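Q: I'm writing up a methods section and want to include an example of the input and output format. Could you take the sequence below and give the corresponding predicted structure tokens, formatted cleanly so I can copy it straight into the document?
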Amino acid sequence: MPLSEQANTSRGNAIYIIAGGRGTIFRVYVADLGLRDASVADVQPPLINLPYTFPKNVSRIADDFLTNEELKITSFDAPELVRLIREKSYTCEAVTRAFLRRAALAQKVVNCITELLPERTIARARYLDSLPEPLDHFMAFRYQSRNTRA
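A: Here is the clean output for your methods example:
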């Protein structure tokens, strides 16, 4: 079987990609790719002037395309972000928008996202910002590593 092959299915055109040593087959549907690309394009403000090709080492690419404030927000760990939101140093919407832009950039550079859902996440962030007091389950975040046993 060739490395990639076009096929017609009940969902439309699909691209079959063989990955892994055991010949695992993943189906990527063209319609799903369009949905993903549309969700990335909905991120505001849009990422502009992105090159068509990127260098092999993209670990510092965010420095070139995100604002200083977005870089700062997305560099905090989760407990610190919760504290800053609770203290009203940042709004939920500002934090959400910063992470959406960083995720959209990551998608453009390394193709790592299925779908972003920016409208839904911004709406939820605005709702959280509108509350007079933070939701307990939202603000009572406690960091636990995956290796911690309850």
